[in-house]
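Late entry, written up from scratch paper. The run itself happened at the end of the previous shift, but nothing got recorded in the book at the time, so transcribing now.
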Amino acid sequence: MFEGRKLVIATKHEKEKVIAPVLEKYLGVECFIPSDFDSDELGTFSGEIERKDDPITTVRNKCMMAIQLTDCDMAIASEGSFGPHPSIFFVQADDEFLMFIDKKNKLEIIVRELTTETNFNAREVKTEKELIEFAKVAKFPSHGLIIKKSKDDFTRIEKGITTWERLSEFFQDFMKSYGMVYVETDMRAMYNPTRMMVIEKAAQKLAEKINSRCPVCDTPGFGISEAKQGLPCGLCSFPTRSTLSFITTCGKCNFAKEEMYPHKKQYEDPMYCDRCNP
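Output as recorded:
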């Protein structure tokens, strides 16, 4: 279905470096990137342009923009969100969505990779010592930084800083001009190797899902759509929050299959039970 066809990767931030090798290997496609593709018009991580849509709508819009620009009938795009983890309090998370669209075969397949593996951070700094401390925690200089006047002031913003010399120069300049500096991690993929690894992992997950076919109608994309909680406690048998089963569904014919005990255990340790260990 995909062998030998062209696939456009909707990116301006070098994501093709990790996406293309995976999809070319597992799908047999020929990947390329569009010229003059500007995903920033849909929103920027640094805040100058607010993302107006949810991540899934945004990643779909990226695919359609690339398809319209190139007249290619297959596209892939990713969209990341950064902030507090939805279930692990006080921990930052990278929430990546990766979508594949095949207009010829009327397919839309999406995967999500939610991880705490991220250097996402930001703060106001008043001394060079504070700046250096922040930079080291943010994995600088292998990971880029952004400097601006304040969190919501975009009158001047310096992105993609990757050397101590430039970081120090911009800090001194901003302090002299404004008396304050706001520094944050640059979350664009080409300046953030940690995020790039998450996108690569999502690409592998997507390739596996595309190659998974519905046992009823043979449509690609037969993947996990829901994880049911309720694995019983090994001590009191009370349903825990741990996964009891995976629900796998077909997006075309709606066939569904439930896989019990996907993590190969029928009972949960009492330490994860809200009754035994409230």
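The mean pLDDT is 93.
(Scratch paper discarded after transcription.)
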